[in-house]
């Protein structure tokens, strides 16, 4: 059987944006695959009914499929000419019909209940009619207005949040909500205010549209979210409520009485708070409602909803995926609507008990569709009645079956150990093929991003590749990781490189103490916050023979002023802006301690990254070179925080694997 090579990552196909038809008979989904001839990733739509699958579109970038209520059409977004547009296609095949709109959709598509309209959002430029700041020269405005090249204009920035890592500059555009009349192919812009219009949902009667408006509050240094409701008969928009936090999804109940939201509160530092399900009784509540008028259905559960939720057809239950100890499992949240009767939260029994996502419900049958995976099985789509056991689930796709047949797949062993302050921490170890008890192996410690991220029971190409190359792989969820409750997630607040570092090192110690890891052949790697912790590790200990840091953070102080999110995110985790507590920011920055670093280091970074800008790697690399240390810096043009170019993705893993092989592998690939 073959062993994985870095270029094999391109053979993996991925499913996303899956949607079940209202009658429950079919599922349409995006499938991303690599086209060898074109040397690019392509995304096409496929349809399956459980008896087989067939290709619905031919890309190369088709996305956001949405079923019409009568199941006779699938709407999707595709770029067939100069810009992305909405298209309609019959589920039994045929030519896609384009729906011309002035602005390209930037959100999922939402059919009205009667199938006559599609609501969506699109980023709309702000029309400049006057000076944007008091001293702006008037004579420059016509010159800018006449400039056809957007990239040739000066960018006038007057707000704190003006760019996003994947989206680009956002200071001059805002998402506005549009409604497309499918029959007449006419589009109406429903909102105009220069704010961030976000999530939306149709009222079951089809006469109203609820949507959210996200704004930055300077006093609390956090985002707040307003819920508004638009009467499509009159065009009037009215407030529903103001939320001190973020809202990820809103949805009316099938009868229209309840409005549910998946939301976090700003009372907990950003990234550390649980997302809960909240419902508002629209029949008994005068609007606008206060936040306390919402009922928290998960008030007694110290865990978080992961992703969107959906209503049962009867409207007495919400289905949501809840994260717990590195697993994402579907749950049914049943409530009666009575204040004295708490919601009943029960875990469902999915086909795979690792990570479930893409949860959707068939309106007519009540069956659940979901995507499920675990460490040894890439994601597949399933359909299952919510009250049935896992054995009843019908697998709809066989994506990557050939891949699994060609390569060995290694298991991940979960273990728990005691971290700093006596906290119980979860870790995993992956052993190479032919592992022999009593023999120590070169070992790579991998550190996740975040810090409020988490490793999960999901398929990992890098870990499989490293294991099949003869390495043991150790990965852990130290304090700061999600899926373990709010206190655990807040354990990293004002303590980067403290308890989290001890937790991680203790997890590696476990593998050494068990006789698995060779203490003389240890490597460490990480991306983003994991890259930060990699740099922190090589400045705090000499136990590693080599390290690979990607999209890293070397200077938390400079990150605060240059990242697209750090002015809020880092300020919440550090409890102050950088200029108000320079010592905290610099004291926990690897740059402060770079002279201690003597570990051979490979640094990888995308040059278009604004989440952790490339300057973070430049600083550390410059210092390492000035100190005469062994350090290589690889820069990837036009790549953001997460790489998209196929050749660069394979290059990243080829360099990583070669680095570890050079510094960690002995001729025997193991020691007694």
Short description:
The chain is an alpha+beta fold and 672 residues long.
- Main sheet record: 8 strands, mixed
Any idea what the shape is?
globular
Helix content: 10-25%
Low-confidence parts lasting 5 or more residues at pLDDT below 50? Answer: 668-672
What structural class results from the helix and strand content? Answer: alpha+beta
Side by side, the strands of the main sheet go 31-32-34-33-35-36-37-38
Task: Tell me the β content.
Answer: 35-45%
Distance between the termini: 27 Å
What number is the mean pLDDT? 93
Number of helices: 11
Number of strands: 38
Radius of gyration: 26 Å
How would you describe this structure in keywords?
672 residues; alpha+beta; 11 helices; 16% helix; disordered C terminus
What does this structure look like?
The strands form nine sheets. This protein has an eight-stranded mixed sheet, with helices on both faces. Strands 1-2-3-4 form a four-stranded antiparallel sheet, with no helix packed on it. A four-stranded antiparallel sheet has the order 5-6-7-8, with no helix packed on it. Helices cover 16% and strands 36% of the residues. It is built from eleven helices and 38 strands. Helix 7 (556-562) packs antiparallel against helix 8. By secondary structure, the chain is α+β, with helices and mostly antiparallel strands.
């Amino acid at each position: 059987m073959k062993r994985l090579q870095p270029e094999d990552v391109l053979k993996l196909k991925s499913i996303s944006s899956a949607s079940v038809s209202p009658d429950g008979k079919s599922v349409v989904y995006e499938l991303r695959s690599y086209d060898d001839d074109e040397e690019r990733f392509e995304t096409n739509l496929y349809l399956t009914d459980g008896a087989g699958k067939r290709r619905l579109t031919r890309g190369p970038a088709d996305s956001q499929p949405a079923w019409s209520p009568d199941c006779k059409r699938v709407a999707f977004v595709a770029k067939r000419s100069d810009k992305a547009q909405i298209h309609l296609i019959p589920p039994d095949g045929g030519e896609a019909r384009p729906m011309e709109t002035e602005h390209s959709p930037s959100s999922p598509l939402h059919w009205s209940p009667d199938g006559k309209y599609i609501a969506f959002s699109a980023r709309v430029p702000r029309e400049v009619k006057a000076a944007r700041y008091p001293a702006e020269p008037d004579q420059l405005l016509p010159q800018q207005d006449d400039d056809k090249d957007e990239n040739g204009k000066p960018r006038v920035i007057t707000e704190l949040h003006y760019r996003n890592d994947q989206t680009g500059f956002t200071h001059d555009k805002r998402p506005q909500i549009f409604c497309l009349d499918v029959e007449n192919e006419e589009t109406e812009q429903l909102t105009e205010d220069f704010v961030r219009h976000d999530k939306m949902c149709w009222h079951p009667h089809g006469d109203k549209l609820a949507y959210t408006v996200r704004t930055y509050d300077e006093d609390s240094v956090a985002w707040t979210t307003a819920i508004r409701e638009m009467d499509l008969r009159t065009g009037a928009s009215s407030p529903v409520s103001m939320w001190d936090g973020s809202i990820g999804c809103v949805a009316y109940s099938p009868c229209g009485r309840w409005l549910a939201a998946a939301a976090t509160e700003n009372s907990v530092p950003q990234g550390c708070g649980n997302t809960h399900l909240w419902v508002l009784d629209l029949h008994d509540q005068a609007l606008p409602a206060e936040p306390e008028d919402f009922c928290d259905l998960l008030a007694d559960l110290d865990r978080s909803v992961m992703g969107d939720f959906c209503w049962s057809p009867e409207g007495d239950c919400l289905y949501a995926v809840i994260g717990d100890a590195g697993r994402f499992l579907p749950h049914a949240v049943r409530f009666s609507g009575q204040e004295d009767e708490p919601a009943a939260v029960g875990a469902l029994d999915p086909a795979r008990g690792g990570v479930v996502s893409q949860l959707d419900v068939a309106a007519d049958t009540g069956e659940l569709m979901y995507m499920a995976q675990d460490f040894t099985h890439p994601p597949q789509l399933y359909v299952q009645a919510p009250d049935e056991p896992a054995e009843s689930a019908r697998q709809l796709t066989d994506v990557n079956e050939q891949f699994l047949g060609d390569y060995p797949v290694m298991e991940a062993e979960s273990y728990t150990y005691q971290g700093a302050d006596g906290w119980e921490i979860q870790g995993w170890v992956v052993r190479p093929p032919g592992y022999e008890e009593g023999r120590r192996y070169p070992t790579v410690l991998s550190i996740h991003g975040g810090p409020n991220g988490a490793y999960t029971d999901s398929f990992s190409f890098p870990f499989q590749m490293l294991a099949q190359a003869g390495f043991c792989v150790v990965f852990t969820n130290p304090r700061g990781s999600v899926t373990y409750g709010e206190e655990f997630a807040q354990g990293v607040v004002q303590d980067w490189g403290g308890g989290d570092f001890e937790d991680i090192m203790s997890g590696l110690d476990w593998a050494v103490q068990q006789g698995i890891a060779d203490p003389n052949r240890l490597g460490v790697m990480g991306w983003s916050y994991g890259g930060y912790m990699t740099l922190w590790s090589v400045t705090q200990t000499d136990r590693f023979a080599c390290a690979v840091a990607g999209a890293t953070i070397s200077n938390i102080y400079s990150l605060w002023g240059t990242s697209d999110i750090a002015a809020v995110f880092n300020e919440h985790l550090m409890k102050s802006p950088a200029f108000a507590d320079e010592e905290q920011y610099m004291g926990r920055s690897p740059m402060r301690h770079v002279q201690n670093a003597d570990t051979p280091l490979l640094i990888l970074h995308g040059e278009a990254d604004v989440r952790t800008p490339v300057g973070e790697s430049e600083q550390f690399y410059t210092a390492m070179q000035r100190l005469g240390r062994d350090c290589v810096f690889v820069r990837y043009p036009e790549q953001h925080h997460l790489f998209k170019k196929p050749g660069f993705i394979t290059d990243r893993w080829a360099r990583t694997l070669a680095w570890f092989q050079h510094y960690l592998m002995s001729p025997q690939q193991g020691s007694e």
